[in-house]
């Protein structure tokens, strides 16, 4: 009850005219910047830190929250329309959203994403208000073996459901894990796969990999086939979701927060893991699994809802523990420290007005995001009417600008082109792109947690299965791997006879 009263007081703070203005500015800026490949919400918040020096802390963090959610939706917009993820959390949206856009259903994909962000954000923020202390306690108790098995589950789940074969899925994952090795060993400081280049010592940024594999690979693939195929104008389609699309979307919208919020609250990959797992879940539960890969709306609705809910979980852990679980949260933590405020268990007591005003602004930001972006869905979808040579030339330009903006090094452009060529080869031989991206994102973290767990157990493999949580997840992984083999086993004669009887 105290949380409800505090939240109502927070709404009083957040709904002042000035703070409403900062929330609207944050949502608009976040959406606009999220559309640019490579410049996600973390960089947007970092770039705008100096601008907020003259603002009071409450107004500054309300604007940052708007940038966070707006940046996530902006990244989904280009991911759906142009197959160019604006940030790593928007990678999954391209799998089903881009085929929908190419078939003239871009407006529906954007509407499903906008409503998914709204639903996931609202449910996730309600969970933040109700469950923040419990989630924080759970995050403290999870150890290295548990983190490792969570990431292993993400690897297995994604490679098992994507592509025409598991072999191609694991080959793609291996490519991603290899790219993730580039840089300094996190525990020994030894250089790996840097070829003597100091610029590669920090590794390859995941956004460069995602943009290279998706945007550059796609642009090169289209360029290679442009003269062989006649270009057809892609219809924009009607701007609203039909009854059938709503019927297929509402359950994924509600399932997404159940996956997204817990993963956002623990330092295990931010919004990437829950969006991948949400996609896998929707494919398993869908009544139309044959449509996945061709434009299934569930594959947009569920992951986008999970991504937005994970952002609420991230904010909750940052506020209650002072633990940043994503790059954006790390930048926001730096912003707190800039104002002389230290997030943690005492923050709710010392800065009550700021914290509950910030949480209330998350609800307001969700409403603003929905109101601003639903009417704009058909406008964004008209990007697809641009002639393909001009469209993909623009994609290459913005992809190059985004990659250069990340590190300010010319070598980033070379790396972007090389990874784009790898993406072209993967398309040529039917390798799914997503396992490679998840390998880059989670590979280094999985390696670090694996080595920590083995160090704690003096090199014994039993150190990887010494908690009930890890044992449960390993059993789930075994089920995922063995289920296709079990399904192919011939049934005993009496089982076949019973099945035939029940069918009659």
Can you give a write-up of this model?
This protein is mainly alpha-helical and 504 residues long. It has one domain. Helices cover 72% and strands 1% of the residues. It contains 20 helices and two strands. A two-stranded antiparallel ribbon has the order 1-2. Strand 1 (183-184) and strand 2 form a beta hairpin. Helix 4 (57-82) runs antiparallel to helix 12, helix 5 (93-141) packs parallel to helix 9 and helix 9 (243-265) crosses helix 10 (272-285). The chain is globular and about 60 Å long.
* Estimated share of beta-strand residues: under 5%
Residue-averaged pLDDT:
76
Using only C-alpha atoms, the radius of gyration works out to 23 Å
Per DSSP E runs of 2 or more residues, the count of β-strands stands at: 2
**Computed structural class:** mainly alpha
**Order of strands across the biggest sheet?**
1-2
How can the largest sheet be summarized? 2 strands, antiparallel
Topology order in helix (H) and strand (E) letters? HHHHHHHEEHHHHHHHHHHHHH
Helix content: over 70%
How many domains comprise the coordinates? 1
Distance between the termini: 57 Å
Spatial shape:
globular
Low-confidence stretches: none
Q: How many distinct helices?
A: 20
Protein name: Tripartite tricarboxylate transporter TctA
Transmembrane segments: 20-49, 109-135, 147-163, 170-187, 207-224, 354-377, 389-422, 466-486
Domain DUF112: 20-437
Pfam families: TctA
């Amino acid at each position: 009850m105290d949380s409800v009263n505090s939240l109502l007081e927070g709404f009083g703070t957040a709904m002042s005219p000035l703070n409403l203005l900062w929330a609207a500015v944050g949502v608009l800026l976040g959406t606009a910047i999220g559309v640019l490949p490579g410049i996600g919400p973390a960089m947007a918040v970092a770039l705008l830190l100096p601008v907020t020096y003259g603002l009071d802390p409450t107004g500054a963090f309300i604007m940052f929250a708007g940038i966070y959610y707006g940046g996530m939706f902006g990244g989904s917009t280009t991911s759906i329309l142009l197959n160019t993820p604006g940030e790593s959390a928007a990678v999954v949206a391209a799998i089903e959203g881009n085929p929908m856009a190419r078939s003239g259903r871009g407006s529906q994909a954007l509407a499903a994403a906008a409503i998914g962000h709204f639903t996931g954000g609202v449910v996730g923020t309600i969970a933040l208000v109700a469950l923040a202390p419990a989630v924080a306690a759970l995050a403290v108790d999870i150890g290295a073996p548990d983190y490792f098995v969570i990431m292993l589950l993400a690897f297995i789940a994604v490679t098992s459901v994507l592509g025409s074969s598991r072999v191609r899925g694991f080959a793609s994952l291996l490519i991603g894990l290899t790219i993730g090795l580039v840089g300094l060993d996190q525990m020994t400081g030894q250089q790996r796969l840097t070829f003597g280049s100091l610029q590669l010592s920090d590794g390859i940024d995941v956004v460069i990999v995602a943009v290279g594999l998706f945007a550059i690979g796609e642009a090169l693939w289209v360029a290679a086939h442009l003269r062989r195929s006649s270009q057809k104008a892609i219809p924009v389609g009607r701007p609203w979701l039909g009854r059938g699309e709503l019927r297929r979307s509402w359950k994924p919208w509600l399932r997404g927060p159940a996956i997204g919020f817990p993963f956002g609250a623990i330092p295990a990959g931010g919004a990437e893991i829950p969006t991948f797992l949400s996609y896998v879940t929707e494919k398993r539960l869908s009544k139309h699994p044959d449509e996945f890969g061709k434009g299934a709306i569930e594959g947009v609705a569920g992951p986008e809802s999970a991504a937005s809910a994970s952002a609420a979980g991230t904010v909750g852990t940052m506020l209650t523990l002072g633990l940043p679980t994503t790059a954006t949260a790390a930048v926001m933590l730096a912003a707190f420290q800039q104002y002389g405020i230290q997030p943690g268990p005492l923050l709710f007591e010392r800065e009550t007005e700021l914290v509950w005003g910030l949480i209330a602004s998350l609800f307001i930001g969700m409403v603003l995001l929905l109101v601003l972006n639903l009417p704009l869905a058909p406008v964004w979808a008209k990007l697809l009417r641009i002639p393909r040579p001009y469209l993909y030339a623009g994609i290459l330009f913005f992809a190059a600008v985004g990659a250069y903006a990340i590190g300010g090094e010319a070598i980033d452009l070379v790396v972007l082109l090389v990874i784009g060529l790898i993406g072209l080869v993967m398309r040529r031989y039917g390798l799914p792109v997503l396992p490679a991206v998840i390998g880059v994102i989670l590979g280094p973290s999985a390696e670090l947690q694996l080595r920590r767990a083995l160090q704690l157990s003096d090199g014994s493999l039993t150190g990887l299965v010494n908690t009930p949580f890890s044992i449960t997840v390993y059993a789930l992984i075994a089920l995922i791997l063995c289920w296709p083999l079990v399904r192919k086993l011939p049934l005993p004669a009496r089982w076949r006879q019973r099945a035939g009887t029940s069918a009659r």
